[in-house]
Sequence to fold (217 residues):
Amino acid sequence: MATLKRSGQDRATRRRAQILDAAYRVFADKGFAEATIADIARDLGVGHGTFYRYFQNKHDIFDHVVDEVIGRVTGAIADESPTATDCLADYRAQVRRIAEKLLGLLDADRRAAKLLFVEAWGVSPALDRKMQQMWRLFGQVTAAYLENGKQKGFLRADLDTETTGLAVNAMIFEGGRQVVLAEGASGPGSPEHVPLPPRQRWIDGVTALMFDGIRGD
Fold:
């Protein structure tokens, strides 16, 4: 009996994940406003009844889709440690590495970029609050990297790490937003899906601004 129960739970977990994957595609390709439950069910080849066994409505599943995107972005840098660097050269290399991972993820999966930077905003006050909380959380993570530099003496002692963390993230994520704006960015696997040409240039510009500034000698 226990084996049968686990088997049923496993099937339910798989079906829920399949519905989320279908919703991920539909919301990114059609946009939240235009997408319907029927579109999601059609993408997966199931009936409406199957959908409603797992999610309450369109807003409910979209909220879970956004959580999935946030998880992917967070997971891209999960193996980095804020206290791993002991000198400015290593820290600069770490910043480049993180930017490469984040922009690489968003370039490889442009649906994620569209959902994160376009579709997730303005759907509901609750979702807007979640997105604002996400930005604050990412800012706190970046601030921890900056605090490490202050404590070890290779960043300025008077650096406002909270504000600077948000500013650094704004620069990096603007690169991700450009993925959405890139001409022909219509999704992974499509004939128009090509690597974003300015990505390396963007990373170079962000790291140069952070570490070298813009002031002439």
Observations:
- Residues 2-30 form the longest helix (29 residues).
- Residues 59-212 form a domain with the Tetracycline Repressor; domain 2 fold (CATH 1.10.357.10).
